[in-house]
Structures
1.
Amino acid sequence: MENRQIFAPEILPSGDFGNRYSFLESDLIAIERWIPKSNYEIPLFITNHGNYTAPTTHGEFAVGFPDFLSLDTGNLVNLKNVSRGETGDYGGKVFFRGTDMHTSVNKLNSVILTELIEAAQKRPSDQRFIMGVCNSKAGLFPARDVYYMDMWDPKKNYHVPRFYHASGFYVVALTLRQCQGAFPYLYPATPGHLINVSRVAGFEEQSFGIIVTFKDTDYTCPISKPKHRKLKKILQK
């Protein structure tokens, strides 16, 4: 397991957002299917240092990444990857390194575009990863490679952040199946729980089923009997 830093907004026990925006991969205990509101499912990352969830809005990225700035309605630009700007009476455009890709700049931001780019170039490169899906394959993508973001509507009333980079684009991962693609070492304890096998401390058999316990935490989760039998064999190797 690599110890990558994963971008994800912190979720407090109250359900409100915290002030942290990443966790270390080595701290990951489990991922649960979370239903914060009716007909809305997103992953909840359980770690040794709090719980986190998948970012679903431009606002969460803008707060978490100082280099990501909305230059026009509907976009969020990684200013560190801007190669040049073009401005005029209408506003302008920004272009990105090694590509003809560009996005728009509104008139207000076009006036201070040079200053915004220069300030971003002085900040250190971001080392975090974003969990996403590209060509149906889930993985962890370096945030520093993002050129800009917009929102994509793959189906009616369903909006997903989309990230453009040199080779194309990917969208933020929001399902447990996609989480398992990004973290292939996680074990499916139930259809709604992926667990980090290296953190398993043991099992408790209760009247209602089997519970998995974990090292250095009070967190527990259920496991189905077939998955329990298989996991015990894995742990004995």
2.
Amino acid sequence: MRKWVVGIAVMAGVGLAGCQRHSGPSATHVLTKMSAAAAAVDSGTIQAHQTVKASGETVTNRTKMQFSTDPTVLHATVAIGAPKVKTQTIALYQTQATAYVQTAGKWYKQNTADLGVNVKAIQQTMTTKAFTQAAAKAKGKVTTKGHTYVVTVSGHGKALRPLVKQVLRYGSADNTQVAAQVKASKIKAVTYTVTVAKKTFLPKRVHLSMTLTTNGTKLVETATQTYTQLNAGHTVTIPAAVRQQATTATTDR
């Protein structure tokens, strides 16, 4: 169960009510343009909500993230709710090399690589190689809503593996294991919806819902992610007190 929880970086949602058919660009074109625009994003704020149901249990994550690339720093707060367990809130600062994690009121220091989530991974949630491939194979559709394009990709089976693999790898330090899990899974249903600004082609909101079965275990995941203040020019810094208080955390390695 734990390996399937995507952690703090996951996907986000938007309804299609009120959308009209769009006869303009294709889903592949919009996603490709979004990928190019997102690759140049230097800062932003992301709100995320994720629910994972498996083996009769439900785990929820609520996350707020801020990041900048000059310097490269990520700040996040995560609220994790699980059955029969008090909701746990975790605070995090991290650079490309070092992560500072606060749990139970104490700050710990560890390698960013051990967490599997970093600024690069956050940026990759806005780039779309796997999504574009899935859109082409699953015949993604584009509608319009105000000043945005809304791209919807839905389907099941092997054609959606690239999309599922990219989603599940966020928050995992072991991409090889994720690939093996996806290969062993039956993809029952996936719907991916992304809202993109027409003018800038930057992402605004994303929604993902998917149902998988692995070794007879059914997993249902829904996730939403909302992007704001992209390229607003703010800089994230790590407070001196956090650096000073942090003690080295032990790992399983």
3.
Amino acid sequence: MPRFDLHTRAGLVLAVGLLAAGCSGGGSGSPLVPPATSTAPTTTTAPTTTTAQLGKYPLAELARQPCRALDERDLAALGITGLGREEATQYGTACHWLVGDQNVSLHPDVPLSYAQTMTEGGRTSQVPVGQRQAVQAEFQRICFVFVAVGGVDHLISATGIPEPGAPQEGACPAAASVVAAALTHLE
């Protein structure tokens, strides 16, 4: 994959576009594309502890209820004790978890302009997240991870911030692991 510069709009559009076009989601081998909107209401029930099937949700539903992005199995695998806490942000609702000694907030649908702002001035790189590639930016002990789903108009973002006294090195792996788990729940 070509090298890119995330400090320019064109560079970020190119980088996220390449990530979206060149990566597949799930086991089907096809790119993850959000389902077309419909006027018919859809209802999805939350997964229960007795079901072995993975709960899958449209991106719009995860954007409204981001804590659904991790189920009980994900919480256990990531070492998260307790449920997520929803937080209102300027870009909708996010869900916050404590992953070890790292605070991670997941934003299931953020605009490209948010990614541009959060990556400006940071140390950026491409990193694997599940079966996809992500743009990762580190800036002042904070780590931002962005994964495109269905093009550059829909980015899933996670922000990792260490607890006081915790090492910064854990912020990016914690954020990336939350995004990777969340991607498994997208329809």
4.
Amino acid sequence: MESPRALAAQLYELHREAGKDEPYLERWPGDHELFGVLTFAQDHANRLTGERYRKAAMLRMQLAEWLRLAADPFQLSAIDDARASGTSWKEMALALRYLDRFGEPNPGSAMNLRKRLYVAVKGRPGDRRQPQVAHLIDRRAMEARITEAQFIAAGEARYAELDAVARALLKHHEAGEVPADPDDDGFWWEQLAEAVDDRRSASERANLLVYVRGVAREARAYAKRTGQPPAATEQAASALDAAAELVDLDAGG
């Protein structure tokens, strides 16, 4: 399954392709600000149409699911810390607005939340203490397998091209021919450099698509912000063009 930053990058690409030089794109929060990305994509959803609108909705769905699941361990830890420091289940239910039909806090609901979170965070598919939680774990596992299979198939279909483009991009970047934002953390370039020589399995090879997309988008975005060409040589520009073509092919399905 693709990383949340990769999902965010795909959302940006859909808006960039549709919006071109629209001023609203300047308010993009950055791939690492995931809640901000989701808010931005929701607020500007209607700027997209047709297939882009559908794909953006699917990406928003996946990103929202990732954020929701990512919050589970934090809520579980917070509940346990609150209990350890003397908070009652009744007080916790009131804070969470778990009320019964008379408007009174329902401690049992808060206790059940803690049980659900514990199984969701630390449980296994075979854990059947709570049927709804077991079903959730099974569904997550099934969705992850389907998504990974689709992702691997797409990556394998164009691995040879991606590998060649990735190596060319790294060569030109290391030579200083593809400028990078000095204030950026270099995440995508570092990931690409680590990944390009370590592609043993089909799953690992498929991830190369994510990193090529990331560096291509970052290079174009930095060039746009600074008003300079994205590449300093004709060869580097050709490598970026090839990467952009592969990104566009992926975005277009």
